[in-house]
Amino acid sequence: MKPRPFRRMRSSLRFLLVSLAAVLSLPPVRAAQPAAPPPPFTADGFAVPQPGYRFQFPRDHGSHPDFKIEWWYLTGHLYAAAPAPGAPPRRFGFQATFFRQAGPRGGEDANPNFASSHLFLAHMALVDVQTGKFIHQERLNREGWDAAAATSTLDVRNGDWSLRLADPADASLQPTLLLRGSVHADAVFALTLKPAKPLVVFGENSVSRKGADPTAASYYLTFSRLLADGELVLQHEEKTETLRVTGEAWMDHEISSSQLSAGQVGWDWLSVQFTDGRELMLYRLRLRDGTADPASSLTWVDAAGLPRKQPFTWEVVARWTSPRTGATYPSRIRVSTTDPADGKPVEFFAEPLAAAQELPGTLGGVPYWEGACRIVASDGRILGSGYLELTGYAKELKL
Amino acid sequence: MPASSATVLLLLRRFAARHARLAPRQTALLAGILALGVAVFVSIRLANRAAVASFTHFTDTLTGQSDWLIQAPAGTLPESVLPELRTALAGQAVLIFPVVESTAARPPGPDDTAAFGRATFTLLGVDLISLTNLARQQTGGDSIFTQRTAGAAQTGRAPDPNADFWRSFRSGPRVWVGADLARDLGDRAVLDLVIDDTRHTIPVAGTIPSAKDAPQAPANLLLFDLPHLQQLTGRLGRLDRVEFILEPGPQLEARRAQLEQTLSALGQNGTRWLVSSPGAKRETADTMTRAFRLNLTVLSLIALLVGLYLIFQALDGAVVRRRGEIAILRSLGVEERAIRRAWLAEAAVLGLVGGALGVLLGWAGAQFSVRAVGQTVNALYYATTVASATPGLGEVFIGLGLGLGASLVAGWWPARAAAATPPAQVLVRHAAAAPGQVLFRHAGLGLACVALGLVCAWLPPLRFAGGGGFPLGGYTAALLWIFGGGILCSFLLPPLAALGRGLALRFATARIALSHLAQPSGRHRLAVAALLCAIAMTAGMAILVASFERTVQGWVARTLHADLYISSNGAQNASTQNRVSPATWRALADHPATDVAAILAALPIELAGTSTVLSGADLALVRTRADLPWVEAPADAAIYDADRNAGLVLASESFTERFRKKRGDTVVLPTPSGPKTLVLAGIFADYGNERGSLLIDRRHYVAWFADDYAANVSLYLKPGTDAAALRAELLAQYPGLAIYTHAALRTEILRIFRQTFSITYALEVIGVAVAVIGLALTLVSVLLDRRDELTTLRALGFTHREIAGATALEGTALALCAAAGGLVLSLGLGWLLIYVINKQSFGWTLGFALPFGQLAALAAAVVATGAVVSYTVGRWGARLPADREE
Predict the structure, then answer these.
(1) Ramachandran bin of B369, using left for φ above 0, alpha for ψ from -120 to 50, beta for the remaining angles
(2) What is the pLDDT of residue B885?
(3) In chain A, how many domains are there?
(4) Helix (H) or strand (E) holding A386
(5) What is the CA radius of gyration of chain B?
(6) What's the gap in Å between the CA of A27 and the closest CA on chain B?
(7) Pick from B83, B166, B251: which is nearest to A235 by CB?
(8) Per mean pLDDT, which range of A321-325, B208-212, B233-237 is the poorest?
(9) Contact at 8 Å (CB) between A248 and A226?
(10) Confidence band (pLDDT; 50, 70, 90) for A34?
């Protein structure tokens, strides 16, 4: 079996992701906020996000090693020219994730090239929508020569996977990002990502709170729409394809130090980029009795980048069973909510572009489904693209 | 010809099988002799194979086989190569595994008297976290991190996996051990080790997990997180090698080739690093020991060679005993050809049975020879871990083939003799054909063999890639001399008989015994030849070992002048890497009792694809303190002056043999500060190292390799210092050091030296034993042949004891003759072994020394055993009934 600490770490990270998202999408509830300011450090010595923190870029795109957990999470849709005239353009979904987790404070590193103060986990996945072929790879490295995150600017690296600013000194809210990734020997991609909207800072007064504990908070930064342009090299046994690709991506950057525990058995998460220039994100925390946690929520991001929560319902229309893990995942979901632009009800379906986008979670220990979706209206019109995350279907998540 | 085949089968069933039933002991003995010969060969072959197979590329246990690895041509690689490699290999889907490898020993216990030979471990330092990225690690069984830890065991708290995981990395070095060691340690959660010159007590973090299809972790492997091993061995920032594993996926071969191309280009033609594969490493181990193993194989064939004589004699004896029945068959009209084929078939069956037994016996023997061969390989080449060997299908076939081949070769003449038996009507017992009539009666053939052997002795060796030679000519010469000597020696019998008769005229028994030798039969001649073969080889080997020992003693006396010799207690054999840290050797050099401290640095290096050793010493001290045993002394004193010797190098004799260099030639030495072209200024003898070594001034060594560690330190003490007392004082202060006084080191060197020859002795003893059995068999056939004569003697009133005495005398005379001839021949073989075979195989020049005592003891033992055996056979013969089968 796999090292349990990694599984734990991974679980914690994913849980945090959802928890944070849950909190930030709630309407500002001042009553829930503790009157006392949060302490500067957690009990185990990590920094706690402070209200009023003034983000400075590019510094805050970079790593925050005083905080325990941090991730840079990218998902997106890529299109290449049609292989033949008349054929539809080729389409791909990708996921590129960089995690950092700090070890316990104290202790010593014999050699900074092989340090153990931070671990870096990364995950790459690519789905070829035409063929349905889904490939993925996990990577775990210690801080050192083969994995690092700069503290002055965005420059995260894990092996030969990297995410950085085209101009390390770019202080704007719409800096150009460069992503390099690969999946084993099958695919290599290099993308230039230009934000179509300014960076969104979620939460209140720079801090998104997660609960009554004064340390339970995070800094949460998102590029909800990045324009991608780059090269995708697909290696097959008999040939190598080099494709020029363009598309759209989503990126979260979250920084926190808190560890949560809760009774959920899993969660569903969906990000949508509508063709009308808006975005939407929803998550649904599933409880053991099958109901959704009240903290579940749906948030619209308008064209200017402002988030706005709306009530929603989630209905599983079809299911798919993974031949690998035996887990049965929702494979077509109906989401009903309210359009904040006109206050009218709106309904759409999230449909995976390929059924098999399950990640076995070998290093992290948690199998989950994370994949590219199309967003369609009841009448079949394409409304946009999405990325769907479904966890806790293979087994209950123990958090 | 079905009719003829049917006849052969009938003959086999009716006669051969009946004989085997009636004389089971005789048949068993024959099969046994064959089996012994085959067994010795098979066991040595197994041991050899195991020794090579045990060359472990330790990383394989964890990673499976890497695709490529890079290594500095000399010394270590800096960590700065890693980011450079990562950048150069971006997008190539390759995992990069830096590796630190070292060795350590268990500290000597209070009862340990042997200074060397304690268990050594190979310490492997890899990045345990990045290891999880390997596909095989992700599908394997246990993980490295989910195990018991020292901390949890000590506190008795329930283990917290998260805390354990971090503790593995963040609270000092921890070790993961093999399953066997973990079992031995039991609840003891720490391991005591001597690494370099320091004793460490290291918490045991768990057991090394083995991936599903990876080899089981060798018992002597200790696993560390890379930075911890760097810390323990004082090599922070340095790597021993970097391994590369391609991610699975398409175009593997093309990517493999591309990876090598990238690595080679960055390695700058091997000046920065050498690119190789683990398979190539194993091959290097193979070629490194090839000469040694071939020599052992040749020696292992001695017993079979002697056995060949015996089978020949035994089958021939059977022909003699069964002449009567063959004659009857002949008169019944059975064709000659059928009889010959029946005999050959009988020999073949015997050969197959003997071969099969030999394989089994060889397997059993290998369990011992494996250790002996392993020890030698350990001492001379690299660390072996093997403790047992299992025969494969190849060994079974080779064993059966050897048995079959030997029995057919040996059975050829007897089968012909059987076929030539006249029909019963004309059979006269006295006309029994003697074996080897033609072959062994021609002195000219013997002389020709000796002469041809002399020519062969001057042939150059076969050269192997990677250094090392095989003295084919030398061995051919030895074979020719043994054969020729065997022929010539039997001509000693008549004069010996004449001499004996002159002395023993009054004793009828003696006269009878010696009368048979005045005109020795082919059987007598064969027995002498077989014994001579065994004695000559054993004595020849004794001469080689004695010469070697005297030479080494002289070398020790000449080179070891210091009062105390100090090395790491972890340095146990040729392949260990434990050294003395600069702080420690400086402290030793600055000790008030120290007059002069000679520091020797050593580093395994690779030159022209062949591994050798580079040493650094203060060459000025060579002149003032410890002279080198020169083979060719330097012509110019510049070599002794560090200001002038930066372009000079000294080489050991083995080095010059392996690399075909002579004084005045240049050697290009790869160093981290670029290649250095050095002129070979002199050649010295070094019997401690078959791979050869280069010696440069330590000042340049330190400058070029940035390595200030010492392999060993020799202390010359101030007059009046008590070396033993100082040793005790230093040992108390530095428990990680091994310190020898002059006398102790000398004893230790000779002990190791003798240990390496132990296996050759065992092989020789088996050869002599087989030859003595052969003598007994000869006498048995001779007596059977003379059954009429024995009846007559008894009728004349000779007692059983007198007849036995006569036989004993006959046998003793044969043994004496063989011993005399064997000793003379051994001088020749000794010369051949020392000046041709050893020189060509190992490149060591030895002085010639005769171990008179040993040779005399060998001769006496053979003659005495011969006498006893002959007497026993004589007693048996005296009771032989006048005419009865067997």
Answers:
(1) alpha
(2) 42
(3) 1
(4) strand A382-391
(5) 33
(6) 36
(7) B251
(8) B208-212
(9) yes
(10) very low
B191 near B185, Cβ under 8 Å? Answer: yes
State which residue of chain A sits closest to B132, comparing Cα positions. A140
Identity of the residue numbered A318: A
Flag if B161 and A235 touch (Cβ within 8 Å). no
Predicted confidence (pLDDT) at residue A259 exceeds the cutoff of 50: no
| Residues A111, B237: C-beta atoms closer than 8 Å | yes
Give the best residue of A7, A114, A178, A242 to mutate against chain B (max B CB count within 10 A): A114
- Give the number of other CB atoms < 10 A from CB of residue B349: 18
Amino acid (1-letter code) at residue B177: V
- Maximal C-alpha separation, chain B: 102
Q: How far is B539 from chain A (nearest CA, A)?
A: 59
Q: What is the mean pLDDT of chain B?
A: 78
**Domain span including residue A304:** 4-26+38-391
- For the stretch B472-521, pLDDT in tens is 888 889 888 988 888 888 888 888 888 877 776 667 777 777 777 777 77
Where in chain B are the domains? 1-60+291-433, 66-276, 492-561+745-886, 564-720
A32 lies in some domain: no
Task: Confirm if B407 and B34 have CB atoms less than 8 A apart.
Answer: yes
B65-82, pLDDT tens digit by residue?
A: 788 889 888 888 999 999
Residue A332, pLDDT score: 95
State whether B162 and A4 contact (CB < 8 Å): yes
Residue B235 structure tokens = 């090599």
Three-class HEC string of A64-85? CCCCCEEEEEEEEEEEECCCCC
Dump strand ranges (E) for B488-634. 564-568, 594-607, 610-617, 630-632
Cα three-residue angle B310-B477-B365, rounded to 5 degrees: 45
A294: cis peptide before it, omega within 30°? no
Question: Does the residue A398 lie in any domain?
Answer: no
Q: Which residue of A has its CA nearest to B95?
A: A159
- In chain A, the N- to C-terminal Cα span, in Å, equals 18
Distance from CA of B578 to the nearest CA of A (A): 20
Query: A371 exposed, middle or buried (CB, 10 Å; 0-12, 13-18, 19+)?
Result: buried
Pairwise CB contact (< 8 Å): A142 & B246: no
Work out the minimum CA distance from B601 to partner chain A, whole angstroms. 26
Tokens found for residue B818: 């063989």
Q: A111 and B143 in contact by Cβ < 8 A?
A: no
- Residue A55 forms contact with B (CB below 8 Å): no
The answer to whether residue B601 scores a pLDDT higher than 70 is: yes
Out of A113, A142, A235, closest to residue B249 by CB: A235
A266 lies in a domain? yes
CB contact under 8 Å between A160 and B132, yes or no, is: no
Backbone angles phi, psi at A124, to 5 degrees: -125, 140
Cβ within 8 Å of residue B762, ≥6 positions away:
B369, B372
B96–A104 C-beta distance less than 8 A: no
Closest CA to B645 of B696, B701, B705: B696
How far CA A148 is from CA of A101, B126, B238, in Å, comes to 11, 19, 20
User: The CATH number of the domain where A144 resides is what?
Assistant: 2.40.370.10
Q: A110 to chain B: which residues are within 8 Å by CB?
A: 227-228, 230-231, 236
Determine the residue type at A257: S
CA distance linking residue A26 with residue A211, whole number of Å:
12
Do B250 and A235 count as a contact with CB atoms less than 8 A apart?
Answer: yes
B278/chain A closest Cα distance in angstroms: 22
Q: Is A141 on the interface with B (CB under 8 A)?
A: yes
Closest chain A C-alpha to B270 CA, distance in angstroms: 24
Q: Which residues in chain B have Cβ-Cβ distances shorter than 8 Å to A233?
A: 91
pLDDT digits (tens, 9 = 90+) for B209-232: 765 565 667 778 899 999 999 999
